[in-house]
Specification:
Rossmann fold, 267 residues, ProC C-terminal domain-like fold, 2 domains, eight-stranded mixed β-sheet, alpha/beta, 12 helices
Length: 267
Amino acid sequence: MQIAFIGGGVMGEAMIRGILSKGLATPEEIIANDISGPRRSTLAENYRIRTTEDYGIAVKGANIIVIAVKPQNLSELMPELKDRFVRGHLVLSIVAGASLVTIANGLGHKSVVRAMPNTPAQIGEGMSVWTASSEVSESQKEVAKSILGALGKEIYVSDEKYIDMATAISGSGPAYIFLVIEALIDAAVHIGWPRETAGELVLQTVLGATRLAQETGKHPVELRNMVTSPGGTTVEGLLQLEEGGLRALLAHAVIAAYEKAKILERE
């Protein structure tokens, strides 16, 4: 396959790294377009791929075009790319808030996959939720699935409404987790742990708890009860979290992010 990346930022680079590490394409089959000269140099040096600042050169000869620009740059980009695509081309967009219709109309091309990956894709532990327009063939869906699978796990949804929901959960979710990690580290320091050791304790605790939930398949309530002895320390800590409204705060955060995602899609 010949793949062109329009946008070589953090997520674009994560996709390039994943594609190469999984052997889905060779460096010679990938070209990246970016407006930043230093960024192009970094990508060319680190991955031995071709780079260009010219949109036309980027898409020429490519059968898969990945749109990985910032949402605020999309309106400027689409007129530059409009009508450059023909039957058989697949456009894979990871632009937050840009609907299938927006991409299809803006590019004058209907074979579009829309995906919402997240930042752990940088280390191959991402979660990508994606959907496709009706014009995308089954073989093209398989290609999209393999590309997104190279970033970690992927889930296909037939209804686009779930993309905005994914934006609020898996897309924004790492930020919520990082905030919890930061708070736990600060709390550990407050009670006397050296900050470096506190970080190690918290990160392994979060990682271990997540892996335990994944590998046992047990409900979080059951796992939580395994830690919570009657009259013990954990139940005291959980009581404070419940009284502080942790559940409600997390729910409000997800709902607010979801509503914002829907607003961005309408703009």
